[in-house]
Design brief:
Keywords: Signal. The protein is of the alpha+beta class and 119 residues long. The protein is built from four helices and five strands, in the order αααβββββα. It folds into two domains: 44 residues; 73 residues, no CATH class.
């Protein structure tokens, strides 16, 4: 009698587990691990509106190719900067599309406080 109850309990739990797995696979299909799913996953992070070329066209239309900056108004040393478009990367988080790139800098800046400057 005890063996039959244990068997029934195991059988019932197996059915519940199988039902859970089958109900979950209807929402998340198992075949989503194939080539098509990988392609969709890669395309998910690809920008549709803001591409590298569109960002470059906008930047060149609104800014000079090389931007000169200074640490403050009275600073005589000019720091020249321009984007390095060859290494630009596109990314998005489904809500915002972003183009990131490193900046080439001619002339560097170091910010020091008085105590660090004495050392």
């Amino acid at each position: 009698m005890k063996k039959q109850t244990v068997f029934q309990w195991v059988f019932l739990m197996s059915l519940v587990g199988l039902a859970t797995v089958l109900s979950c696979t209807s929402e998340f299909p198992i075949d989503g691990y194939g080539r098509q799913a990988r392609k969709e996953k890669q395309d998910r992070h690809k920008n549709t509106e803001l591409t590298k070329s569109a960002a470059r066209q906008w930047y060149e239309a609104n800014y000079e190719p090389v931007v000169a900056t200074r640490a403050n108004y009275e600073d005589t040393t000019v720091c020249m900067m321009k984007p390095k478009w060859e290494n630009a990367k596109e990314s998005n988080r489904r809500r915002y599309e972003v183009v990131e790139m490193p900046i080439l800098v001619h002339g560097g800046r170091i910010m020091l406080d008085a105590e660090t400057a004495q050392k």
